[in-house]
Amino acid sequence: MARLRKFVAYRRLERPYTRTSKFKDKSFVRSRPSILIAKFETGNSKKKYAYEVTLVSKNDLQIRDNAIESARMTSNRLLERTFGTNGYKMKTRIYPFHVLRENPLAAGAGADRFSTGMQRAFGKPAGNAARIKKGQIIFEVGVGKAGLETARKALNRAAKKLPCSYIVEVKENK
């Protein structure tokens, strides 16, 4: 299986290129890779919690879906071990709508016979990414007063799995 390209190639938030063609079938991305995020809500979502701890973005960027899932898993593991399955609520507030495309270029001996170069360079779908604006909430955790420090620690762990930098904010629900 092919390796993932480094995310530096996709990190910048630019307007997605939309191809327009006189041939209808070439004017859109045909298929979409499946999204790797397993769950968007974990814990006890029905209960109201006294505090809400959020992970907020400091920059505009794109985050690939496998990075979001990795961050969710690490923070959820800590919360579940500490509080059990009903002592907290965690919600992923972003969704990877954007389809990342890649124009594969052949390399090696005889590559010029296979490669199209920049002719028909729209690219094949390579993955999905969420487009994040500055100040947007990535994850949200609901806990009681006793669990504030653990929730902060869990979201700091999640931030280490994601590109760029983030702020952990605490808000009291009234």
Question: Nutshell version of this structure?
Answer:
The protein is of the alpha+beta class. Helix 1 runs antiparallel to helix 3 (148-161).
Structure, explained:
The chain is 21% helix and 26% strand. With 174 residues, it is an alpha+beta fold. It has a five-stranded antiparallel beta sheet with strand order 1-4-7-2-8, covered by helices on one side. Strands 3-6-5 form a three-stranded antiparallel beta sheet. The longest helix has 19 residues, at 65-83. The chain is elongated and about 65 Å long. 25% of the residues are buried. The mean pLDDT is 88.
- Helical content stands at 10-25%
CATH C-level category: Alpha Beta
Terminus-to-terminus distance: 51 Å
Kindly report the CATH topology. Aldehyde Oxidoreductase, domain 3
**CATH architecture heading:** Alpha-Beta Complex
- Which term fits the overall shape? elongated
Number of helices: 3
Largest sheet: 5 strands, antiparallel
Number of domains: 1
Strand order of the largest sheet: 1-4-7-2-8
- What is the β-strand count? 8
Rg over CA atoms, rounded to whole Å, is 20 Å
CATH superfamily: Ribosomal protein L16/L10
